[in-house]
Design a protein that fits this description.
The chain is α+β, with helices and mostly antiparallel strands and 387 residues long. The protein is built from ten helices and 16 strands. Strands 2-1-15-14-13-12-11 form a seven-stranded antiparallel sheet, sandwiched between helices. Strands 7-6-16 form a three-stranded mixed sheet, with no helix packed on it. α2 packs across α5 and α2 crosses α6. The protein starts with 5 loop residues before the first helix and ends with a helix.
Length: 387
């Protein structure tokens, strides 16, 4: 299908908006568009392809959410039971109230319980230091590693508000991943391989980069103040204490389409029913009531700009997806599911129009204006072609 995106993607690479990009569009039946332009690593000749392996970052979260929901189906996890029943350490988490005269954190016991629902909807009280000033200060005060380090101590953080009080993006899905591990008795990557990515045929999706994946990997690039890119040495730790369910997976655009098609097909993909249709329906609707998604103010401009998709459009959260409650300016239907990854990987799933799209590059900071503009233009071109 010609959706008019080739010139758009090619021009973005030529203009230096991104070093390389992969994009694809799929219906519930199969891929209707795919393209790749530019290079995997600036300065090297290896071209971007549909099977190029990239760091998913937070596009990991929906897969871990799906894994948790498999266990909810089986009655092994409860959405609204205290998560401390599965992970006792979550019963000891405290709420950060402020700072004493010596600049040390003041904390108190939470007024409500952390639950799996609150973890999957980012309403549990956990935040990220990238977008929360108090958490950035706490990290600095305690000299803590970031959660992407895969070190257990990186998760020993206080809440910034009582569970259920508001929405704020945070380390919640790392904890959900630990809940999956606790009840399954497996490492998170092994659970995913046996129960989700393996059955769906997502053979290039893993926390640990296999030799075959490494041959096709793209490097992360950092945009400088001059607008130019430098190649980063960043890689998710390959021998972590825990596999970060909030952002540790590597994958390809081709693999991710398999996951998106599974959602469009009510839990069925690659001939396998990995989730019940009613579970997918539950995951795909607002799971946090009257709370709404808000803008994320950057505390680290190297990692992220201020982040909000479709300002002015009300957005809720399902069980691991952002949901736009009204039609988006791109043409995305109300009730669509979406999210993104730190290195400017993006996806959306539109159940109303039975279409899903993905655009992946490896660029920091998150929502880099030129990368985000490319994704927005790509999505508009897709909907224009579908009209």
């Amino acid at each position: 299908m010609n959706i008019g995106a080739d010139d758009l993607l090619r021009s973005a690479v030529a203009a230096g908006d991104v070093p390389g990009v992969v994009a694809a569009l799929t219906t519930s039946e199969g891929t209707i568009y795919e393209a790749a332009y530019g290079v995997r690593t600036q300065g090297l000749a290896a071209a971007m392809r549909q099977d190029t392996v990239m760091w998913l970052a937070s596009m990991t979260k929906p897969l871990v959410g799906a894994a948790a929901m498999q266990l909810v189906e089986q009655g092994r996890l409860g959405l609204d039971e205290p998560a401390a029943k599965v992970l006792p350490e979550l019963g000891d988490v405290r709420v950060l109230e402020g700072w004493d005269a010596n600049g040390q954190p003041r904390t108190r016991a939470p007024k409500s319980a952390i639950t799996l629902r609150r973890l999957l909807t980012h309403t549990a009280g956990f935040t990220y230091d990238t977008w929360n000033a108090d958490m950035a200060r706490f990290h600095k005060t305690r000299n803590l590693p970031r959660t992407g380090s895969g070190m257990n101590i990186a998760l020993r953080l206080p809440l910034c508000f009582d569970p259920g009080q508001r929405w704020e993006y945070g380390i919640n899905i790392d904890w959900a991943g630990k809940m999956v591990e606790a009840v399954s008795g497996m490492r998170l990557g092994e659970y995913l391989k046996r129960n989700l990515t393996g059955p769906l045929g997502m053979d290039s999706t893993a926390f640990k980069i296999t030799p075959a994946m490494r041959e096709r990997i793209a490097k992360v690039h950092q945009r400088g103040d001059d607008g130019k890119f430098t190649v980063s040495a960043f890689e998710v730790p390959q021998e972590p204490e825990f596999e970060p369910g909030g952002g540790g997976l590597y994958s390809t655009a081709g693999d991710y389409q398999r996951f998106m098609r599974m959602i469009l097909n009510g839990g069925k993909g690659n001939g396998k029913q990995v989730l019940r249709s009613e579970t997918v329906e539950l995951m795909s609707r607002n799971a946090m009531g009257e709370l709404r998604v808000k803008m994320l103010p950057s505390q680290n401009r190297l990692l992220s700009c201020d982040a909000e998709f479709f300002p002015g459009v009300p957005k809720s959260w399902g069980l691991s997806f952002m949901i736009n409650e009204a039609t988006a300016p791109t043409g995305r239907s109300a009730g669509s599911l979406a999210w993104a990854g730190l290195a400017n990987t993006y996806f959306w799933i539109d159940p109303a129009k039975r279409v899903a799209g993905v655009l992946m590059t490896q660029v920091l900071p998150f929502v880099d204006p030129r990368a985000l503009a490319l994704f927005t233009a790509y999505e508009k071109s897709a909907y224009s072609a579908l009209a």
